[in-house]
Design brief:
The structure holds two protein chains of two kinds.
Chain A lengths: L5 H21 L4 H15 L6 H20 L2 H36 L14 H16 L8 H9 L12 H5 L2 H6 L5 H34 L6 H32 L17 H7 L2 H18 L5 H19 L3 H22 L7 H20 L3 H12 L8 H5 L8 H20 L3 H6 L5 H19 L12
Chain B lengths: L2 H26 L19 H10 L1 H5 L2 E4 L11 E2 L2 E5 L7 H12 L6 E5 L2 H4 L20 H14 L37 H16 L3 E6 L4 H18 L8 E3 L6 H5 L12 H22 L1
The chains are: A mainly alpha, B alpha/beta.
């Protein structure tokens, strides 16, 4: 049951919101939270119940480790944290990276080791790092270890359990008393949630899928692309993943808002960034916060002295790890390394006070690095990524738009779909490069006639797409 | 406006628009799936697979007793009645046995057929992919979807006596394509004649389902433009010899036989090596109207 399904939009979410509100009125003090926990378990188990024990096992294990951290002092406290981190990383490796590790060991050892086939539980990357944050925060006494009920509700909270936004434990846990004892979300907040949900829905269902058609065509015909076409199709993929993931995040934030819980924003018009540093302050903001606090800072602390060089090294290591977090493939490592290099160059450039290029050039260079990163991100293997990268920089076939023309499928009698797709893509380009972020639009929201028309119109258009069965699964479900 | 009023009006306007569109869809019902479609003649214009899927839910089993099951090679054959049965052309452009089974199963879940003409051509059994999301089509698409809106627009234009230029599938299921002649006289790749085990399994199941519900079966090997046929003759004969024992026994009308040389040799009958022109389709159809009763007479 994805956010972009009729079951979720018309039944699950409204039912949970109503049940929570009823629980506030008629039940004991923990009623709304119990509703949310049960709903989260149902939501997680719905597509594949066999993954539920993995989530519950991880929740129980981390709760126990946090209790032990809370009750111990000195070196034991640190040892228990280390054990917790090893268990979490081991847990992630077992389900996500084991076949990758074995395949690489086989390659290096020139021996064909059997690769076990272990199913990849939905959202494991997200709920594992959420709990790593929780353990570290408990260790650093930023929060006390919570009871199992609170911990399970916080980790499995259905708006973010599968694909984020990655939420700091303190921020969510501190909202539970108000959730249970307050009056529930105000009409203003519900209206804002509906508006934000409709923005997310249209981004995912209409805009992301329109760009995916172009990106799929480009990545399916790499060898015939001109340089210009290669950049166009790479940008199409960048736009696809932006609308896909930011649309998902908008729907997650709006879903939580309907229940009276505020979760962090994840995107802030990232494709308008003028540097890679700015990009990571605007793209997947909750992951950036995790990388900064839980990877970059500890790596920096491990150096004896903080210098520009150690900062560059820490950035490269942190971003490469963040790249690998996305998936068990060397292409993700390179994706992280490209961004790490971009960030490092930004750091050096700023530290050495080198002249700032004009904004338009900064924007083009930033977008070029983002596109290059996503070429590796999208490619199934290193060979494909390298072939595509060669097309990006080849001078022998620079101009040419044959594939851009052919992509429309007009020869197959798909002219009507082409018109719809081209219109959606044009809207998407304007929205991504010139428009306000959903977060900003939602903060500025007022219950006006215009917003009523926008929310109703977007919802109806999205419903039409959903009912026409032309939508694709969320890209980040794969992680 | 207060937030509470805004919420009510937003939800209300969405429900109102959905209600209006659903009512309109019910009234027009271009696929004959929402209400009784007996006696209706429904032509469609777009998204052939999805549309035929929906029509097979109710319209086809209600209004027809027989089917032509095939690919684009048979999609413009025009045989409204055969052996006294009303025939619906179930053929799909680029179709295969798995897709055809998917369509026919929809009809068999609510009705039955008395006759089926089944194409014996390599594309039917070379793969089993379901294209254009055929396996994900929902009946609710008849209430609101892109293809429904195209049909509603087409119906409106036709009701206003305005021409709708999109290609049309007739109420009998024929797809009336007509493109310029282009004969590519080159040997076909051996993979063209590959028999996919899943596809042949699907074809066998489709035929057995029809037979178990009392349908008479006849196989037809479609005509190919003679020079193309001669270039690939050995492969075609080998394909037919390989496939015949894999399918349930039934009479076969083979347009590759010498008696049909004149049909195959006339370029005016063909748009390319595989597809017949409207004139060729009429010739094939006329021949089938004579040959099929004869085939059953001989059998009996």
């Amino acid at each position: 049951m994805g956010f972009d399904s009729f079951g979720y939009i018309l039944i699950f979410l409204p039912a949970i919101a109503i049940l929570c509100q009823l629980a506030r009125r008629i039940s004991s003090s923990k009623g709304p939270q119990a509703c949310i926990l049960v709903a989260s378990i149902v939501f997680y188990a719905w597509p594949n119940p066999s993954f539920l024990p993995v989530l519950l096992g991880s929740v129980s294990m981390n709760w126990l480790v946090a209790q032990c951290i809370g009750r111990s002092n000195g070196i034991w406290r640190k040892r228990i944290l280390e054990l917790g981190l090893i268990l979490n990383i081991g847990f992630l490796c077992l389900f996500k990276y084991l076949s990758f590790i074995i395949a690489n060991v086989s390659f290096l050892a020139h021996h064909d080791f059997q690769v076990p086939k272990i199913a990849f539980p939905l959202g494991i990357s997200f709920f594992t790092i959420t709990q790593i944050m929780y353990l570290v925060d408990c260790y650093e006494k930023q929060i006390p270890p919570s009871n199992l009920f609170d911990h399970a509700t916080f980790v499995s909270f259905f708006p973010y359990v599968i694909s984020g936004p990655i939420s700091r434990p303190k921020r969510i846990l501190n909202q539970f008393p108000a959730l249970n004892n307050g009056k529930g979300p105000s009409a203003d907040l519900v209206a804002r949630a509906m508006f934000l949900f409709s923005l997310g829905l249209i981004k995912k269902v209409v805009l992301a899928d329109a760009f995916s058609k172009a990106a799929d065509y480009g990545f399916g015909n790499i060898s015939g692309l001109s340089t210009v076409e290669a950049w166009c199709f790479a940008t199409a993929y960048t736009l696809q993943i932006y609308f896909d993931f930011s649309g998902y995040s908008d729907m997650a934030i709006a879903s939580a808002m309907l229940l009276g819980i505020e979760i962090p924003r994840n995107f802030d018009a990232p494709l308008r960034s003028l540097s890679i540093t700015e990009y990571w302050q605007r793209w997947h903001i909750s992951l950036t916060a995790f990388i900064t606090s839980y990877l970059y800072t500890p790596i920096m602390r491990s150096f004896k002295k903080a210098t520009l060089l150690t900062s560059v090294i820490a950035t490269l290591i942190a971003m490469t790890i963040a790249g690998l977090w996305h998936g068990p493939n060397w292409t993700f490592v390179v994706f992280g390394a490209i961004h790490g290099t971009g960030l490092a160059i930004n750091q050096v450039w700023r530290k050495k006070k080198m002249p700032t290029p004009p904004n338009w050039l900064c924007w083009i260079l930033t977008l070029a690095v983002i596109d290059l990163g996503f070429v590796f991100f999208h490619s199934p293997n290193f060979q494909v990524a390298l072939v595509y990268t060669r097309q990006l920089f080849t001078l022998s076939h620079f101009w040419g738009a044959e594939n851009l023309r052919r992509m429309d499928g007009s020869s197959d009698g798909m002219g009507i779909m082409l018109m719809i797709l081209a219109f959606s893509q044009a809207i998407g380009v304007v929205a991504a490069f010139f428009g306000k972020s959903s977060d900003q639009l939602s903060r500025e929201f007022q219950p006006t006639w215009l917003n009523l028309a926008v929310t109703s119109g977007f919802t109806l258009i999205a419903f039409l797409y959903l009912n026409s069965n032309v939508t694709k699964p969320f890209v980040y479900f794969a992680f | 406006m207060t937030a509470r009023r805004w919420i009510l009006m937003t939800v209300g306007s969405v429900l109102a628009v959905v209600g209006v569109f659903a009512t309109l869809a019910y009234a027009i019902d271009p696929y004959g799936v929402l209400r009784d479609s007996r006696g209706r003649k429904l032509a469609v214009f777009f998204s052939e697979r999805r549309v035929k899927f929906l029509m097979n839910k109710r319209y086809v089993p209600t209004n027809f007793d027989g089917l032509i099951v095939g690919t684009s090679a048979s999609s413009n054959w025009t045989i409204p009645t055969l052996l006294g049965y009303r025939i619906y052309n179930e053929s799909l452009s680029g179709g295969n046995a798995a897709e055809e089974r998917f369509l026919v199963d929809q009809g068999l879940s609510t009705g039955s057929y008395r006759f089926a003409l089944l194409l014996l051509a390599p594309p039917m059994t070379s793969d089993h992919n379901l294209q254009d999301g055929l396996d994900a089509v929902k009946t609710s698409e008849a209430l609101a979807s892109f293809h429904l809106f195209v049909h509603e627009a087409a119906f409106t234009l036709l009701a206003m006596n305005r021409r709708f230029s999109k290609s049309e599938t007739t109420p009998d299921g024929q797809y009336l394509f007509n493109f310029s002649q282009n004969f590519n006289l080159a040997p076909l790749e051996p993979t063209y004649f590959r028999i996919d085990p899943i596809a042949i399994g699907q074809y066998r199941s489709l035929i057995q389902s029809l037979q178990s519900r009392g349908a008479k079966i006849v196989y037809v090997v479609p005509p190919l433009y003679e020079p193309c046929y001669q270039l690939n003759r050995e492969n075609y004969r080998a394909y037919l010899e390989a496939i015949r024992p894999l399918l349930p026994p039934a009479p076969i009308i083979d347009f590759e036989n010498t008696e049909f040389n004149s049909l195959r040799a006339d370029p005016d009958n063909f748009m390319d090596c595989f597809h017949v022109t409207p004139r060729g389709a009429a010739n094939v159809s006329t021949l089938l109207e004579t040959l099929i009763p004869r085939a059953f007479a001989i059998k009996n």
